[in-house]
Design a protein that fits this description.
The chain has 368 residues and is mainly alpha-helical. 60% of the residues lie in helices and 4% in strands. It has helices at residues 4-32, 37-61, 83-115, 121-146, 160-166, 170-197, 203-213, 217-233, 243-266, 276-287, 337-341, 345-348; strands at 296-299, 317-320, 323-326, 363-366. Helix 1 (4-32) packs antiparallel against helix 2, helix 2 (37-61) packs antiparallel against helix 3 and helix 8 packs antiparallel against helix 9 (243-266). 39% of the residues are buried.
Length: 368
C-alpha cells in the first residue's frame, strides 16, 4: 500500500509530468501548423485527470489514504462502519466514476492520431471499430459502477456488508473493466505496427516508426499492473483488516495508468521539436543496424489519392511492364515514414494525404 506521502506525490507529480508533455505536444503542433481531433481529446483527458490528482491529495491530506484502518467487526470480517471510512470510500468512488473519461479519451486520441497517417478501407474499418469499442467500454464501465446498487448510489460508501448484500459484485465489475482495458491497449499498439509493416518503405524506416509507436507500451504496462493489483487485492478486500489499503491502491494505480496513458499518447507527436542535427544523428544510429539498406525503389507505381478525394499528383519514377518512366515533379510534399518518424508528419500531411500501403497498388523492393 502506498504511504500518504506517496499518494500526495502521485497526485502532484503525475499531473505536472502530463502537463509538461502536453505542452511539448502543442508546441510541436504549432510548428506543424495544425491541431486535430486527437489533440483536443488528449486535452480533455488531461483536464479530467487533474480532478483525480486533486482527489488523491485531498484523500491523503484530509482523509485516510495510506493509513491503517480500524479493526474489523468481531466475527464478521467486515470493517466497522465509521465516518473516516465513509469519506474515503466516497472519494474512491468519485475517482471510479471519473477515471473512464480520461482513460477513454487518451485511447481515442491515439486512434485519431493514427487516422492522420494511415488510410484504406481496411484501416478505416479497424480504426472505427476500435473507437466504438473504446466508447462502449467507457459508457458500460461508468454505468456499471454508478448503478452497482441500482438507484441507491449512496450505498456505495456504506458498510461492505451492506454493499455485499444489496449491490452487484464490485470484484466482477473491476475485473471486467480492467481486463477489457488491457485488451484494448494491446490492440491500439498492434494497429499501427501492423500497418507500418505493410507500407512501401525500407526496413530501417519501418523499425524507426515502430519504435515511436511502441511508446504506447507504457500504457499497456500500467493497465496490466492495475489488473494484477485488482486480481490480488479485490477478491479478499472485504475481509482484510485494513480496508484503507485496498481503497488507496485502487485510487493510486488508477491515477498511475491515466498519467502514463497521457504520456504514451503524446510521445509519438514530439518529433517536430527535434533539430535537424538530432534527426540526422538518430537516423545514422539506427541505420547502423541496417548496413545493407540503401533505400527503397518503387516499381509498378500507382499514384495514391488523398482521403479527401484530391486528385493524385505523381512524384516518383518507376516502370510499368519493364518500361521506365519519370513522373512530372510536383512542388507538393508527400508524406513518407521517414518524415513522419523524424517529426515532420504535419508538414508532410498538409494536404490531408496519408501514407500509402501495399494495398494501394504499389510494390516496394529493398536491399534487405
Amino acid at each position: 500500500m502506498p504511504t500518504p506521502s506517496e499518494v500526495i506525490a502521485m497526485g502532484v507529480v503525475m499531473p505536472l509530468a502530463d502537463g509538461g508533455i502536453l505542452l511539448l505536444r502543442y508546441l510541436a503542433r504549432r510548428r506543424t501548423g495544425k491541431y486535430g481531433i486527437d489533440d483536443y481529446l488528449i486535452l480533455f483527458a488531461y483536464i479530467t485527470s487533474l480532478s483525480l490528482g486533486a482527489l488523491l491529495i485531498v484523500g491523503a491530506v484530509r482523509y485516510d489514504y495510506g493509513l491503517n484502518g480500524p479493526a474489523t467487526t468481531a466475527g464478521s470480517g467486515y470493517i466497522a462502519y465509521g465516518k473516516g471510512l465513509v469519506h474515503t470510500k466516497r472519494i474512491t468512488n468519485i475517482i471510479d466514476f471519473i477515471q473512464f473519461w480520461p482513460l477513454g479519451a487518451s485511447k481515442l486520441s491515439c486512434i485519431f492520431f493514427y487516422r492522420r497517417i494511415f488510410r484504406g478501407q481496411a484501416f478505416d474499418i479497424v480504426s472505427w471499430t476500435t473507437s466504438f469499442v473504446v466508447l462502449a467500454w467507457m459508457l458500460a464501465s461508468f454505468f456499471l459502477i454508478l448503478l452497482q446498487c441500482g438507484k441507491h448510489v449512496d450505498w456505495l460508501w456504506t458498510s461492505a456488508e451492506h454493499i455485499a448484500a444489496n449491490c452487484m459484485s464490485g470484484v466482477k465489475i473491476a475485473l471486467f473493466y480492467s481486463s477489457v482495458d488491457v485488451v484494448v491497449d494491446i490492440v491500439i499498439i498492434i494497429i499501427p505496427i501492423y500497418w507500418v509493416s505493410k507500407t512501401l518503405t525500407s526496413r530501417t524506416k519501418k523499425f524507426l516508426v515502430c519504435c515511436v509507436f511502441l511508446f504506447g507500451a507504457l500504457a499497456v504496462l500500467s493497465s496490466v499492473v492495475r489488473l494484477v493489483v485488482f486480481i490480488v487485492i479485490y477478491p479478499g478486500h472485504n475481509s482484510t483488516p485494513n480496508q484503507y489499503a485496498w481503497l488507496t491502491d485502487v485510487a493510486y494505480f488508477s491515477m498511475l495508468e491515466i498519467g502514463l496513458g497521457i504520456i504514451a499518447a503524446c510521445l509519438p507527436t514530439l518529433g517536430p521539436l527535434l533539430t535537424d542535427a538530432q534527426r540526422h544523428r538518430f537516423r545514422n544510429t539506427v541505420g547502423a543496424f541496417f548496413p545493407g539498406n540503401r533505400g527503397s525503389q518503387i516499381s509498378g507505381f500507382q499514384p495514391y489519392l488523398s482521403f479527401r478525394g484530391l486528385r493524385p499528383k505523381p512524384l516518383l519514377s518507376g516502370s510499368v511492364s519493364g518500361t521506365p518512366f519519370v513522373l512530372k515533379e510536383s512542388t507538393e510534399t508527400r508524406p513518407d515514414l521517414e518524415t513522419f518518424v523524424m517529426g515532420d508528419i504535419e508538414r508532410a500531411l498538409g494536404h490531408s494525404d496519408r501514407i500509402p500501403t501495399a494495398r494501394d497498388g504499389a510494390h516496394v523492393s529493398s536491399d534487405i
